[in-house]
Amino acid sequence: MLAEIRSVSKTYESDGNKILALDNINFQVDDNDFICIVGPSGCGKSTLLRIIVGLEKPTSGEVFFKGEVIAADNPKVAMVFQNFALFPWFTVKENIKLALEALGIKEKEQDEIASKYIKAVGLDGFERVYPRELSGGMKQRVGFARALAVEPVLLCMDEPFSSLDALTSQNLKDDLLMLWAEKNMPPDAVIMVTHNVEEAVYLANRIIILSPRPGKVMADLKIELTRPRNRKDPEFYRWVDKVYSLIV
Amino acid sequence: MIFPKVTISEIIGLLEAVNDAGGVEDAARLAGDFDLELDEILPSIDGAELLGFVEVKNGNIELTADAKMFLEMGIRERKKIIRDKVKGVELIKELRNKLLESDEQRMKKGDAIKFINNSISTNDIESYFRIIINWTRHAGLIGYNSDAEEICLLAEK
Question: A185-227 pLDDT, tens per residue?
């Protein structure tokens, strides 16, 4: 087992009222899991992801990573954000190297690792380009390269495709699956939050469905579709319908 | 001439979608699948056609043999194919020739824009410049230094 989310609840206080956002969430993450967490907006799925990576503390319960309570600076866990979260004053390569510098890796090695992952995501030729010059799709490729460069065991992604146009998002999903299929590439497991059911069925081998607020695990489904998956396949649509029926 | 205002990623996304439909798909249905209007998906179709990845007949988009081979490849190999395809685009060929004749194979952005404007008549030349640079960077053919506002020919690898 790679990670365990054990009895995680989260309560917010607003104007003196307590609002329960997440209610007793339990699940385990194993090697080779590609988990998509889906649920209606406001169900706390992004909050759950932030708790899993250690960016936020649960009100009760714990997240264990390889048997230890998760820490925010765990170098084996990386995050990809919806809005890319790149430093605009740094180039593509500098943005990636910065993540490595934070791990105390020497300059020469930073350079080599950054180049390796720039190539892996098809960004070669864009090394010295600033984020403002990049299309959304290319910005998110930098997001992927930066996350992969720290060679994480667990990769967490918060709606990574939702700010991209439909065709670019299609291309990036397929490229992500190609990287995922490469055995010598990190990570060992992925947890991705999405509101898009088709996207979840296309990518995941497990889908966790959260209820409307307070978010509870309503279903934990194994998606038994062979890869590569085809969105036009009737079997694909049966799974999409099944997930929808559990959400609505 | 008309140059499709679309990124390489969008073109590849379109090819993947046509492939899912079995290699041929009706343009309107494809647009519908992506919640796009027909005129929003047309630039991607034009781009794919310009690169020789699709043939368009009676509203049907059909993948060429090159596209089918391309889709079988990994990210690295795809990059090489894109390089060869973009190299063959007339406007980019002309821009590379112009750069070959220039001092140190560099050109100021303003001059490059004037050159592109000779072929593409538009009042939105800035976004065409960005798209052309998106293609040539993808292909590793022409780079752009935004600090110096200069484009330059990239060495053949």
Answer: 999 999 999 999 999 999 999 999 999 999 999 999 999 999 9
Contact A122 B20 (CB under 8 A): no
ipTM: 0.91
pLDDT in tens, B70-97: 999 999 999 999 999 999 999 999 999 9
CA distance B105 to B98: 8
- DSSP secondary structure, A219-239, as one string: EEEE----SS--TT-HHHHHH
CB contacts of A135 in chain B (<8 Å) are 7, 9, 134
CATH topology for A3-76+188-247 is Rossmann fold (3.40.50)
- The pLDDT value given to residue A75: 87
Quick check: B9 and A178 CB within 8 A? no
Q: Which residue has the tokens 């319908």?
A: A241
Contact of B134 with chain A, judged by CB distance below 8 Å, is answered with yes
Residues of A whose CB is below 8 A from B13: 166-172
Size of interface A-B (CB pairs under 8 A): 78
- Across the interface, do B10 and A137 touch by the CB < 8 Å criterion? yes
**C-alpha dist (Å) from residue A58 to A55, A68, A158:** 10, 15, 18
Q: How far are the Cα atoms of A66, A114, A144, B102 from residue A85, in angstroms, in the given order? A: 27, 17, 11, 38
Question: Under a CB-based contact definition with an 8 Å cutoff, are residues A77 and A154 in contact?
Answer: yes
Closest-CA distance, A74 to chain B, in angstroms, reads: 29
Mutation choice for A interface testing from B7, B9, B16, B137 by most A CBs within 10 A: B9
* Min Cα–Cα distance to chain A from B18, Å: 10
Please tell me if residue B145 touches chain A, with a CB cutoff of 8 Å.
Answer: yes
Q: How far apart are CA A112 and CA A106, in angstroms?
A: 10
Domains and CATH numbers, chain B: 8-71 (1.10.10.10), 85-153 (1.10.10)
pLDDT tens digits for range B103-143? 899 999 999 999 999 999 888 999 999 999 999 999 999 99
